[in-house]
Amino acid sequence: MSTERLTPTSYLVLGLLAREGPSTPYGLERQVAATVGNFWSFPHTLLYSEPPRLAALGLVRETREQAGRRRRVFAITSTGQEALESWLEQPAGVPTQLRDLGLLQLFFSDLAPAAARLRLAEHQLAIHLGKLSTYEGDARLERSGSTLGRGLRTVEHWRGATLPMGLLYERAAVEFWTAVAKRASRSKVSDAAVGSDAVRTA
């Protein structure tokens, strides 16, 4: 079949089903939150609408649980596996996209007092320190050789394959915002001194 109708979310769903086996949309959402969501942002509502669409294309198979809540369960088909493998054999040629609200505010921060820039830097620093702490915890689990059962292999794969990039990014972000905070702090002191001189002159 033509892959023109497939999106990155399509391949994300196919990849998770290929690695973890049959899953409900809620199960996919939990896997994304713990792994792929750390570096690939998208509306998680798509994890509920995309599997049925892929089923209509013959890339996944839908069944219903026989008891309990009778949830919809999706499994990848051989056609879906072929589509996934074809996508994986084509290296991504799109530059990294970075959408960082903190950087956007920093870009315009010269239009605000130095105190506002300092608050921004301190806030961003706290965010990245928190994320770095989480990633470092994941890295410790990786070094400990922790093994997980079926349904959690994607978490292990996240720790081994893409977590190193997350660590590099967060460490760089901490270094960057620390420097911004130091510059903003010096500017704040300078602004205060200028203001004090102006008051005395008046």
Overview of the structural elements:
With 202 residues, this protein is mainly alpha-helical. The protein folds into 2 domains: 8-88, Arc Repressor Mutant, subunit A (Orthogonal Bundle); 101-201, no CATH class. The protein is built from 7 helices and 2 strands, in the order H-H-H-E-E-H-H-H-H. It has a two-stranded antiparallel sheet. Strand 1 (60-64) and strand 2 (72-76) form a beta hairpin. The protein is elongated and about 70 Å long. The model is unreliable at 196-200 (pLDDT under 50).
Q: What is the succession of H and E elements?
A: HHHEEHHHH
Rg over CA atoms, rounded to whole Å, is 23 Å
> What is the domain total for the residues?
2
Helix content: 55-70%
Tell me, briefly, the overall form.
elongated
The major pleated sheet works out as: 2 strands, antiparallel
Overall average pLDDT: 87
Termini distance? 78 Å
| Uncertain residue ranges | 196-200
Contiguous helical run count: 7
Strand content: under 5%
Structural class: mainly alpha
Extended strand count: 2
Q: Going across the major beta sheet, what is the strand order?
A: 1-2
Blueprint of the fold:
Layout (H helix, E strand, L loop, with lengths): L7 H13 L4 H10 L11 H11 L3 E5 L7 E5 L1 H11 L12 H7 L6 H30 L9 H49 L1
Antiparallel strand pairs: 1-2
What attributes characterize this protein structure?
Arc Repressor Mutant, subunit A, 2 domains, 65% helix, elongated, disordered C terminus
